[in-house]
Amino acid sequence: MAFSIIKPGLLDTIQDLGRHGFGNMGVNPGGAMDGYAAQVANLLVGNDKHEAVIEIHFPGPQILFEQNTLIAITGADFSPTINDETIPRWQPVVVRKNTVLHFPSLVQGGRCYLSVHGGYCLKKWLNSYSTNLKAAAGGWDGLALKKGDELPFNENTIYFAGLLKKSESNFETLPWRVNTDKIYQFPHEIGFIPGHEWESLAGFSKQAFLENNFMIHPSSDRMGYQLKGAPLTLARPVELVSSAVSFGTVQLLPNGQLIVLMADHQTTGGYPRIAHVVSAHLPKLAQLRPSDTVQFKLMDLDLAERMLVTREKELHILQRSCLDHLNEMVC
C-alpha cells in the first residue's frame, strides 16, 4: 500500500475531470468541483491532467505515507503540514516514508486537491475514476474515504529518496510552482452569459440580478449552491419542459431564489435557466463557501471563450514545463 487514512476528513473523495457522455442514461458528469486545481495538481507531479486526485473539504484528513512519494496540493488553503511542518501549495513536494499529512486550519477556499506521482491504482467506472456517491460507484468503492482505507499508487520508476537532500528531512520542496493570481482574482465576482430564459425575467429582476449580492446558503453542496437574495420574478408565467443543464447553470426556483448547479448536478431540469456561469470562472465559484457572497457580472460570449482558450493554452505549457523539470531532476 502507498498511504493510509489515519483520520478521515469531512468529505474526501476520489475525483477526476468527470464522467462525460452518459447524460442520456441519467448519469451526471460529477468530477472535481475545481477542475483547474485538479488538473494543476496532476501536472505539477508529472501526471496526465485526467488522472485521479483526492478532493478534500475542511476539516481535512490525516494521511500516513507508507513510501517516499511525490505529491502536490492545490486549491483551498487548509494549512497543509507534514509531521507538523508547513508545506507549500501549488508546488511539488517529495514526502518521506512514514510521515503524516495533516490540514490543521482553514485559511481560505472550499476544497483542495491531493495528487501523487503516477496516480492512484483504481478501476474506472464508465470511463472515469470520479466518485458518484448517490450511485455508490467509481472512486474508492463508491464511497468517501474513511479511517483505515489504504490506497495503492500506480508503479513508477523514480527513486524519490534520492530527491530528499537531507537524511533527517521529512520532505523536500521541488523548485517549480504555479502562479494562480489571474485564475482566482476577484473571487466573489462571477461572470455569466444569459441563459435561455434570461429574457423572461422581469426588468427589475434583471437589474437586481446584476446589481445585488447573493449569499451561498449553508445547505449548498456538490450538487448545487443555493443562493439567498432578493426574490426574482418572471415577467409572465412560462411552462417549461425538462431540458439539459450543465455545471454552472443558474436556475430560478419557484420561490424566487436561485440555485447554481455544480459538479454533481442532475442531467435535466425544469426551472428557468436564467444564466450560465462562464467556464473560466467555475474554479472561483467552486472555492466559495457557505455564507460567502456572489456578485454576477454579465460577460460577452467572445470574451468568455477567449478566457477559456487562454487558460487551456497555459495548462498545456505548464504540462510541458513540469515534465521537463521533473526529467531534469531524475536524470
Structure, described:
The protein has two domains: 3-180, no CATH class; 186-299, Cyclophilin-like (Cyclophilin, Beta Barrel). With 331 residues, the protein is of the alpha+beta class. The strands form four sheets. A seven-stranded mixed β-barrel has the order 13-20-17-18-15-14-21. The two termini are 26 Å apart. The chain contains five helices and 21 strands. The protein has helices at 35-44, 181-184, 203-211, 282-286, 301-330; strands at residues 3-7, 12-15, 53-56, 62-65, 69-77, 81-82, 85-86, 93-95, 100-102, 108-116, 150-151, 171-173, 189-194, 213-216, 224-228, 243-244, 249-252, 258-261, 268-269, 273-277, 293-298. It is 18% helix and 27% strand. The protein is elongated and about 70 Å long. α1 runs parallel beside α5. The model has no long low-confidence stretch (mean pLDDT 94).
What order do the helices and strands come in, and which of them pair?
Blueprint: E1 3-7, E2 12-15, H1 35-44, E3 53-56, E4 62-65, E5 69-77, E6 81-82, E7 85-86, E8 93-95, E9 100-102, E10 108-116, E11 150-151, E12 171-173, H2 181-184, E13 189-194, H3 203-211, E14 213-216, E15 224-228, E16 243-244, E17 249-252, E18 258-261, E19 268-269, E20 273-277, H4 282-286, E21 293-298, H5 301-330
Helix pairs in contact: 1-5
N→C terminal distance: 26 Å
How many β strands by DSSP? 21
As a percent range, the share of helical residues equals 10-25%
Please outline the major beta sheet: 7 strands, mixed, barrel
Give the strand order of the largest sheet, numbering strands 1, 2, ... along the chain. Answer: 13-20-17-18-15-14-21
Secondary structure tally, helices: 5
Shape: elongated
Beta-strand fraction estimate: 25-35%
What radius of gyration results from the CA coordinates?
Answer: 21 Å
Uncertain ranges: none
Mean pLDDT across residues: 94
